[in-house]
Amino acid sequence: MEVNDNALEILDLIYHKTEKDPITGTEIEGSNYAEGYYQRGRYFASIKESIQARRFFEKAATLDPAHYLASMELGENAIRLANFGEADKLLNESLKRFENFKQSYGAREEDETLIQGNVGRIYFDKARIQYLSAAGIHEKDKITEFPGRKIYPFRARAAMDTVAKTRSMELKNSLEGFSKAESVQTDENEYTLIRRWRTPLPPEIQRELRYFKGWVDYMSGDFAASLNEWSGFEDEEEYN
Fold first, then answer.
1. What pLDDT is stored for residue 4 in this prediction?
2. How many CB atoms lie within 10 A of CB 76?
């Protein structure tokens, strides 16, 4: 049996199982178990079945108001579809859930996933939206067409209009979000349980974060800062 098939079979077992909550004594049916839907969503996301993944993340977010990771996954899906307005709403909802319920994380067995999650990823996603929305000269420019036409205010040939100035400021403001994403990992004011069990941001996100920060510095004419962010990217192990 393939690993993927085995994972799906286990998730199916959860769906059809009924357990009693050790604290409340209430019976929980697998069909109403938010974490099961969330893990199904992660499974389908891993095999690039985005529509199926979104359906399960939506179900998880609906069943469990504390599940900030399900909302985050929905936000990231919206980013991939370039629906930045919807993505920002979902990410704000994710932050709201985390702040409202973090003091109670650990009371349920399924909270292990929420404790190990990294809220810094949400700040990264929000900053990424700012960056992608502001990194072009005109709104019609396609940021995916590298190198594309980007804002270089320090050497502009003509004075920027109000819209361009606003977008340039948004680009710089994205640095605050990227820095917040990094600082979450060492936030000593967070609850001890969350601080101890929180997993680091995935290496690919850490690299992407530094890449974006370097580009903002570069576009602002701070070449030394951009080189500092990009140092090490030439190492082969960064991409393995």
1. 56
2. 20
Judge whether 12 and 4 are in contact, CB under 8 Å.
no
| CA 87, 91, 92, 94 torsion-angle sign | positive
First vs last C-alpha separation in the chain: 27
C-alpha span between 135 and 224 (Å, rounded): 20
**Structure tokens of 39?**
């893990």
127: alpha, beta or left? (left if phi > 0; alpha if psi -120 to 50) = alpha
**Using CB atoms within 10 A of its CB, is residue 144 exposed (0-12), middle (13-18) or buried (19+)?**
exposed
**Domain residue ranges in the chain:** 128-185+209-232
* 180: nearest Cα among 155, 158, 159, 209: 209
Whether the upstream peptide bond of residue 147 has omega within 30° of 0, thus cis, is yes
- Which range has the worst mean pLDDT, 62-71, 89-98, 142-151, 200-209? 142-151
| 155 residue type, one letter | R
Closest CA to 206 of 229, 172, 187, 225: 229
Beta bridge pairs of residue 150:
136
Lowest mean pLDDT among 30-39, 40-49, 72-81, 177-186: 30-39
Q: What are phi and psi of 115, to 5 degrees?
A: -65, -40
CA pair distance 32, 18, nearest whole angstrom: 10
Strands 18-20 and 27-29: antiparallel
